[in-house]
Amino acid sequence: MTLNVYLSGEIHTDWRDEIMEGCKAAGLDIAFSMPVTDHAASDDCGVTILGAEPDKFWHDNKGAKLNAIRTRKGIEEADVVVVRFGEQYKQWNAAFDAGYAAALGKSLIVMHQAAHQHALKEVDAAALAVCETPDQVVRMFDYVLNGRLPG
């Protein structure tokens, strides 16, 4: 069984690499997709491609809509969506991605630190699993694909 996984959420740490490397080391058959993780490219894609905007609102609006094309496609094609909420920034886009995935009936894994448990209680309620580390995600995928528990 091949699993298509979309990795959404914060872009300031290497959590995606940790999951992909862990899954590869475990020999798991997983195809990963994700948003553009170059922060400047993600912020400026709209105005770089479609033209400058004098107002920051329209600058951000163009970028957000262009990024939404990629995000929606990735989530719609995924079997499982992993959404990570980081410690440093408020990731409103991650909350949208989690809600969108849940509305589509996608299997949703939410990852965040215990300190965010109360703030994310509604997001967590939509998830099939809530965890704190990339290693826990890898172990979940190993169980889902192989029925194998950590040794």
Report on the architecture of this protein.
There is one protein chain. The chain has 151 residues and is of the alpha/beta class. Helix content is 50%, strand content 16%. The protein has helices at 15-25, 39-50, 56-77, 92-103, 121-126, 134-146; strands at 3-9, 30-33, 80-84, 107-111, 129-131. It has a five-stranded parallel beta sheet with strand order 2-1-3-4-5, sandwiched between helices. It is globular, with a radius of gyration of 16 Å. The mean pLDDT is 95.
Spell out the blueprint of helices and strands.
Elements: E1 3-9, H1 15-25, E2 30-33, H2 39-50, H3 56-77, E3 80-84, H4 92-103, E4 107-111, H5 121-126, E5 129-131, H6 134-146
Helix pairs in contact: 1-6, 2-3
In short:
With 151 residues, this protein is of the alpha/beta class.
Structural class, by secondary structure, is alpha/beta
H and E string: EHEHHEHEHEH
The side-by-side strand order for the widest beta sheet comes to 2-1-3-4-5
Q: Whole-number radius of gyration?
A: 16 Å
Q: Enumerate the spans where pLDDT stays under 50 for 5 or more consecutive residues.
A: none
Q: How would a crystallographer describe the biggest sheet?
A: 5 strands, parallel
What is the rounded distance between the termini?
A: 22 Å
Shape: globular
Average pLDDT? 95
Number of strands: 5
Helical content stands at 40-55%
